[in-house]
Design a protein that fits this description.
Layout (H helix, E strand, L loop, with lengths): L2 H13 L4 H14 L21 E8 L2 E8 L2 H14 L4 H6 L4 H4 L8 H25 L1
Helix pairs in contact: 1-3, 2-3, 3-6
């Protein structure tokens, strides 16, 4: 699936829920379904700066696509990073760099996050794009 197809799928899932408490629960459920990050990747190097919670992000280039693994020690944040990975995992560096992550606005995520969580979301997106940039330059 393309990045935009996945985003549209997420928008559909979230717009089916009117209440933001239900949407938070969906985020928590998504995070709970995410497999745990192997301990060897829970390093200082993989911690994302700018997140109030601890968020680890591991990225590997596999067959020209970036495979991400992540975990957080906070339930909602783990759901947010799971959502980002659902959209961007196993995509090419170029597709990630070119992506317009419109689903964040469309589902109302940014406006329903506290300022610190919103900063954390931006930090996660920035780190994902940094990996994509690094892998795109390594390839050429």
């Amino acid at each position: 699936m393309t990045i935009n197809e996945i985003q549209d799928e997420i928008i559909e899932e979230f717009t089916e829920l009117d209440d933001w408490m239900d949407r938070y629960q969906l985020l928590i459920d998504m995070g709970s379904e995410q497999p745990p990050l192997p301990e060897q990747y829970k390093t200082e190097q993989n911690l994302i700066d700018g997140c109030q919670s601890r968020v680890w992000l591991q990225a590997d280039l596999v067959d020209g696509k970036i495979h991400f693994q992540a975990e957080s020690d906070a339930l909602i944040v783990k759901g947010i990073v799971t959502l980002l990975l659902r959209v961007l995992n196993d995509q090419t560096p170029k597709d990630i760099l070119d992506a317009d992550l419109y689903f964040i606005e469309k589902i109302g995520l940014r406006e329903h996050l506290s300022p610190t969580r919103s900063n954390g979301l931006l930090a996660m997106m920035k780190q994902i794009k940094m990996y994509a940039l690094a892998f795109s330059q390594k390839k050429s």
